[in-house]
Amino acid sequence: MGRIQSPHDTFFRGILADKEVASDYFKAYLPTFVTEKLDFDTLVQTGESYISKQLKESFSDVVFTCKLKEGERQVKVSLLIEHKSYIDKYTPIQLGSYIFSGLQKQLDNREKLSIIIPILFYHGEERWEYKDLSGLFNNPDPDWDQYVPNFSYVYNNLWEMSDEQLEALSNQFLTASLLTLKHFKQNTWLEENATKIFIKTRDVPENLLELLIVYFLQINKSDEPKFIEIFESIPEALKDKIMSTYDMLIEKGEKRGFEKGFEKAQAEYVKNMLLKGFAEEVICDTLGVKSEFVKTIAETLK
For the chain, what is the domain count? Predict the structure, then answer.
């Protein structure tokens, strides 16, 4: 059975498929010494994966290549799309497996070894401090540290950034997307700030606008009349575009009455996660469903 993709995975992978958004994301969150050396005009999403069969159940990755500004050397920029909405202290081990799996694939493809820069994207509400691999070991004697295969990764924690910092990004669609991801559990915030979010999308291609609308509908728990009310408050020119997309989604069956349609989709996600052995708490955090809903699905499986 393939990996279960959460709405967060689908949305974030979707926005990074746009080269301009991906470039602006990397420029904003990679270390300065890296961005200064990369020629982002050469940034290409390769379509390949560096994830082993064992890791495919838990991870999905997007691999980009980007040339240095000087010379013909290439740097592999690998983005790990794992939306952690709960704390997993063993993530550095998973990242290590990811890095070496990628390097092994380069060897298998007879490529010159390129640096892999993993990025962990976290948008949960609990405080999660950055720790490298050595932080998992309780070694009183520092001499043992030489045997720990340590490495660094870019830790992109949305909750460490204020809304004002996100709004300062030059790419307004990226701002709208990250704000929505950051507040995905705060229904009242989403309702009150929907106009601000969608105004930032006035100049984006329709496919990106549709992606944001679909994600907004998936994470927002308002009833259908409330959705209409939210969109009605948006300026006329943009509202027409949003409402036409909204109507198209209904026709396509992606929001059939929303309560029934989305609940059915959630039930499938929950069932698959239960069959894979995920804990109830993890399922609730990942999919944003209530404990009673998970218990109901578990009973049907029995």
Answer: 3
Residues 54 and 97 in one domain: yes
The confidence score (pLDDT) of residue 22 equals 93
Tokens representing 75 are: 């740097």
Half-sphere exposure (CA, 13 Å, Cβ side) for 288? 20
- DSSP annotation of 125: S
38-88: per-residue pLDDT in tens?
Answer: 999 989 887 666 666 655 555 566 778 888 887 656 666 776 666 677 788
Q: Cα(181)–Cα(177) distance, rounded to whole angstroms?
A: 6
**How far does CA 193 lie from the centroid of its chain?**
21
Rounded to an integer, what distance in angstroms lies between the CA atom of residue 103 and that of residue 68? 19
**Closest to 111 in 3D by CA, of 75, 147, 163, 154:** 75
Parent domain of 286: 259-301
Cα 116 from chain centre? 19
The length of the chain is 302
pTM reported for the whole predicted model: 0.75
Q: How confident is the model at residue 70, as a pLDDT? A: 75
